[in-house]
Amino acid sequence: MRSLIKIYHDKLINLNTQIIDLVNLSQIQEAKIKNTNAIIFDNYPNAKSVALDLQKDIDLHRDNLLYGIPYSLKDNICTKDIITTGGSKFLKDFIPPYSATVYELLQTKKAILVSKSNLDEFGMGGTGLYSFNGYVYNFHNHDHITGGSSSGAVDQVASGSVAFAIGTDTGDSIRRPASFAGVVGYKPSYGLVSRYGVLPYAPSLDHVGIISSYVTDAAIVADTIIKFDDKDYTSQKLSNINLYKNLKTLNNIKFLVFDDIDDYLNPDVKKSYYRALDALTKAGHKIKKVSFQSIILQSLRTVYMIISYAEGSSCYANMTGIPFGLNAGGSNYDDIITNNRTQGLGSHVKHRLVIGAYITQAKHFHTIFQRSQKIRTLIIDEINRILDQGDCFLCPSASSIAPKIKDILAGKDSATLVDDLLLFANFAGLPSITVPHSKINNMPIGLNITCKQFADQLALNVALTMEEIFNYA
């Protein structure tokens, strides 16, 4: 099993390198990708000080695989006394008085935060082009997007500047950009990782997850951040979670695949996809084609937009600029709020919040929002019906390689129904993971698997099996 974290850990324990060397290496790699605009906050001065302190006790932490390992947090995750902007001008100077639970858990393990990564403003966007801090460019080719909203975190892992990164995923925000950058993107089951201290977008869809170079690294990090948290009302209690210890390759996996996929894939991606299916079959695994109800497939994106925009509008009603955030001034209460939001929020966020406010008006709530929630229930029933037929649902993580920035800016959206399939996992709170498969014109493309709720061990084991078959490098 390949693992960057284990390689670093073994070198530290055997005194073949020091923690400060790992931090310096991260900084060097970060400098090389500066023009990708992947980071918002540089924590290296503090990280180096922490590294020197931790080195003194290295021999006491032989069993702690994350001890002294550099990592990055998406900048919608609150860090006490460290700036947290959410990628928004509104919070460009915001320093939280508390920390997110996921950050505290990693601090307890003595992993070293070296940076906060760039993102689409408040997680609203799928391109990495909607941050107040500027566009994020794909590490492999700057003409292309990395994807969003966890764009900066994905670029950092792809470049090797950090061993892992923590991102968030509301629709595909970890898993799709992971495909575009050739890394592993893992979204655990809903409620396994606390969202306390994470700036929300749509709480019923939001997941905190992991970006890493290898599946084993994702399992190692997950064992630390999957913990019950009474500060998160959606947190789930599960016993005997030990994903890394129980990680293994599997035989006779029954993969479920969409039977009507060809017309929704770029031709090169289609060839890559079928090569992957052939490789899985030759390795002794089974492929079963399944059909989704067409009405369910056609409603995925619309239902996602209605629910997420409505929840986002509710979550960001507190963005007035009066208790915190940008304060542009004004002659009265209404003027202050109007000025603050006009100057502080980006056009893409405004667009979503305005639609969300419309949806949640009393006269529209039942006819639009409540009906969408009922359709969501049907969607959940549909994916669970499909998953009853095998071990996991397998699909391309995107219908194409990463689109070009100029095409996105020109309004040329190449997304197809395949790009909506990742939404199933957010609607139903299912574990879902993207694994890199191959490259097309030197640009990565990945495959995604989704399993039943809380079958995270199975999801990781299947992902590890695929990783070893594809041997992506």
Number of discrete helical segments? 15
Low-confidence stretches: none
Kindly report the average pLDDT value: 97
Evaluate the radius of gyration. Answer: 21 Å
Give the beta-strand count: 11
Which structural class matches the secondary elements?
alpha/beta
List keywords for this structure.
39% helix; alpha/beta; 11-stranded mixed beta sheet; 15 helices; 473 residues
SSE layout and pairing:
Layout: H1 4-13, H2 19-32, E1 39-42, H3 44-55, E2 70-74, H4 101-108, E3 112-117, H5 151-159, E4 164-169, H6 175-181, E5 184-187, E6 207-212, H7 215-225, E7 254-258, H8 267-282, E8 286-290, H9 294-315, H10 333-344, H11 347-359, H12 362-387, E9 392-396, H13 405-409, H14 423-428, E10 432-440, E11 443-450, H15 456-470
Parallel strand pairs: 2-3, 2-4, 7-8, 7-9
Antiparallel strand pairs: 1-3, 4-6, 5-6, 5-10, 9-11, 10-11
Helix pairs in contact: 2-3, 7-15, 9-11, 9-12
Explain what this protein looks like in three dimensions.
This protein has helices spanning 4-13, 19-32, 44-55, 101-108, 151-159, 175-181, 215-225, 267-282, 294-315, 333-344, 347-359, 362-387, 405-409, 423-428, 456-470; strands spanning 39-42, 70-74, 112-117, 164-169, 184-187, 207-212, 254-258, 286-290, 392-396, 432-440, 443-450. The two termini are 14 Å apart. By secondary structure, the protein is an alpha/beta fold. Strands 1-3-2-4-6-5-10-11-9-7-8 form an eleven-stranded mixed β-sheet, sandwiched between helices. 39% of the residues lie in helices and 13% in strands. A hairpin with a 2-residue loop joins strand 10 (432-440) and strand 11. The protein contains 15 helices and eleven strands.
